[in-house]
Design goal:
about 190 residues, alpha/beta, Rossmann fold, disordered N terminus, binds shikimate-3-phosphate
Length: about 190
Amino acid sequence: MTPIPDRQTMTAVQGGARVSIFLVGFMGAGKTSVGLALSRRLSWPFEDLDDRIEEHAGHSIEEIFRLLGETAFREMEHRALRDLCGELRQSARVVALGGGAFVQPRNLALIAGITTHTVFLDAPVEELLRRCQQQAKTRPLCRDAAQFRQLYEARRPGYLVSAYRIETQNKDIETVAKEVACSLGME
Ligand code: S3P
């Protein structure tokens, strides 16, 4: 007799393909931290696109921007995402995208080509700025507060294309991860 799959498996497997979860949003949204927490909750593998880029390039994101510029970084980001999307056809993962990845049209086309749940982690721009300023991580596009706010406004409509939106203000990482899992019907 074929065993009846549990709820988590039923939700993750649609039409025979496992559905990866893409966390998107601006710098400071908590994509990596929430992604790690979510992957632990679901016992799924976790993938951070920026880590993949750094490993492949042998340089940090900060060095890539400084030595090669943003255009070269976007090219690397696109190639890394293309490779990752190929792998996700075989094994679903929780994926954290860098803040600019989801708003590049050619990247959106790649993501649209695979089965995913896209989740926008949202927060007011002042909260995002505060989080980025508190973190030790060096972000090449977070050097100037006015530019940060401007970039956020320009990108926000792009993030809203996601299938799900989770408000993260005043919530801890575990709470947000739980909300993501519940929204997807996995908890
Ligand atoms: C970027 C965000 C960064 C990183 C790179 C570019 C962006 O990732 O990909 O510095 O364009 O917003 P985080 O969102 O994880 O900081």
